[in-house]
Amino acid sequence: MPETAPAAELPADSNLAAIEANPFAAVNHYFDLGATAAGIEHDYRVLLKLPYREMRVEVPVRMDNGRLEVLIGYRVQHNGARGPYKGGIRFHPSADLDEIRALASIMTWKTAVVDIPFGGAKGGIQVDPKRMSQNELKQMTRRYTQHISYILGINRDIPAPDMNTNAQIMAWMMDAYGAKHGYTPGIVTGKPLELGGSPGREPATAQGLAFVLEAAAPELDFKLQDARVAIQGFGNVGSWAARIL
């Protein structure tokens, strides 16, 4: 059965290396630095550091060889004060609860900084999708979506692609959600164009990175045309960033 519970705050740790070993502790450490600089009161800090809801689900998948595997999936809703929760779904071996918590928190800050009416969330399954067939991926995606569907909604929580997920994964999520709640094309973003997706979605994250760099350059006193850019990773964001920059 799906489990939902409020998150517990991690203990304070003065050792930066130990803090940065835990993604959620690292995010909260840097949030505290920013909150101190911004003069945010203690009570607000407490509220803003803790996720509103965390869901852990078991995702059984019948593999092509007949064996049943049970994978673990998560959806963390960090803060929805500004609007519906928004954040991607990732499939990766490192996608544990602390990583998902951290990324959900960052989504809250990202949507707030660019002043759009969304909150922050993130989800994922701890799995290596590169070792799975299309049939296994489809099963896993649909079962995961069914399990988290009752906390999703076009005015509640709207998933999107992330690491190792794409338009096809979003199409399967849309279909699985629709089977339970009725046809709802707005339940995910990043879906195929023929299902109502948005043109330009694939390079959008990297394009946003370029816009941020353009805005930051005058503040940091450097010229983009003279800059040398180091890119870590060459997936969707990295590859498009290389082309755009």
Describe the structure.
It is a single chain. This protein is an alpha/beta fold and 245 residues long. It has two domains: 3-10 and 50-194, Leucine Dehydrogenase, chain A, domain 1 (Rossmann fold, 3-Layer(aba) Sandwich), CATH 3.40.50; 200-245, no CATH class. Helix content is 43%, strand content 19%. The protein has eight helices and six strands. It has helices at 16-20, 23-38, 42-49, 97-113, 134-148, 167-181, 201-220, 236-244, and strands spanning 3-5, 53-62, 68-79, 85-92, 119-126, 157-161. Strands 1-2-3-5-4-6 form a six-stranded mixed sheet. Helix 4 links the parallel strand 4 (85-92) and strand 5. The longest helix has 20 residues, at 201-220. The termini are far apart. The model is unreliable at 5-13 (pLDDT under 50).
List the helices and strands and how they pair.
Elements: E1 3-5, H1 16-20, H2 23-38, H3 42-49, E2 53-62, E3 68-79, E4 85-92, H4 97-113, E5 119-126, H5 134-148, E6 157-161, H6 167-181, H7 201-220, H8 236-244
Parallel strand pairs: 4-5, 4-6
Antiparallel strand pairs: 1-2, 2-3, 3-5
Helix pairs in contact: 2-4, 5-6, 7-8
Number of domains: 2
**Mean pLDDT across all residues, rounded?**
92
CATH class of the largest domain: Alpha Beta
Unreliable stretches = 5-13
The helix-strand sequence is EHHHEEEHEHEHHH
- What Rg do the Cα atoms give? 19 Å
Biggest β-sheet, characterized? Answer: 6 strands, mixed
Q: Structural class of the helix and strand makeup?
A: alpha/beta
CATH topology of the largest domain: Rossmann fold
CATH arch. level architecture of the largest domain: 3-Layer(aba) Sandwich
CATH H level, superfamily name of the largest domain = Leucine Dehydrogenase, chain A, domain 1
Sheet-strand content, in percent, reads 15-25%
> Helical percent range?
40-55%
The largest sheet has its strands arranged as 1-2-3-5-4-6
> What characteristic shape results from the CA principal axes?
globular
How far is the N terminus from the C terminus? 46 Å
User: Helix count, per DSSP?
Assistant: 8
How many strand elements? 6
